[in-house]
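Field: sequence (string)
Field: structure_tokens (string)

Example rows 1 and 2, in order.
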Amino acid sequence: MFKKLLSSVALIALAASLVACTNNSSSSTSSSSSGSSVQAKLSDTALESNINESIENAYPSNRFPHRVTAVVWEGKTLLIGQALSQELADNIYKVVTQVYGVDQILNQIEVNTRFNPTISSNITDSAITAQVKSRLALTKGIPSTKIKVITQNGVVFLLSKATSEQTETAARVAAIVSGVSAVKIVTLN
């Protein structure tokens, strides 16, 4: 707990120093917009960490069977994963609504009464995500910087700020990757 608190403080200090550097620099329009994007990324990262820590503190996954993860992108929170019961899924959602800084929540928690988290599924999901990302980067016409890829239990989530045509193409590319059981699109426009 102390290590998590220390790392959160360090992250906030880093964010503050980056903001100070950005504000103190002789700013042109491009440097100020890139500075604000760095600040937004750090804010998203800090918020994501706070949300996931709050979920784990309230409902430790070793006592309450779930594999729920929060992903924050440009201030929007996506909850993905599985919970053993609807009550647990609802309670996790309530915890997230109480985290400071959470605004919009896209709830994709699925209830699975036969849920059984394993380490091997985490490894498989990471491999699927890496494969999808690399295929998207190699596919002409898909702006991979506008599509974030997250995989959980073989389900690929595409968080997209790209056009609907680009996103649909990305979904078709992701769907043919070995191990993908489904592709879900979450548009952030």
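Row 2 begins here:
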Amino acid sequence: MLPFICRRNQGQSIDQTSAPQVIQEGDSLLLECTYKISGNPYLFWYVLYPGQAPTMLLNDLTRKSEKNHKGFTGTHESKKKSYNMNKNQVEVSDSAMYFCAVSDTVNKTHSSPVT
């Protein structure tokens, strides 16, 4: 079994899958994130592996509708105000806490882990 633990971010107007998910290796994963913010939000998915600091996994800084990194795909649907993340086949090494974040501003010096 592969646990996926998500938490609700209380600092922003954002909601995501909040109950822990336990899935089998090789199964698909979908984590949903919706936001309520005016303007053009910048959206992120972070991952927190056991014993490590959080790191950015995906972002929507380039405003493309879909991003892919390490097999995870982030899909931004601005009309639905959602930025969902999925992976077709999870691995045991994907066990971690995942959380989405939103910001209405991003510094230009910010770098993206996804090219």
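free_text_note (row 2): The radius of gyration is 14 Å.
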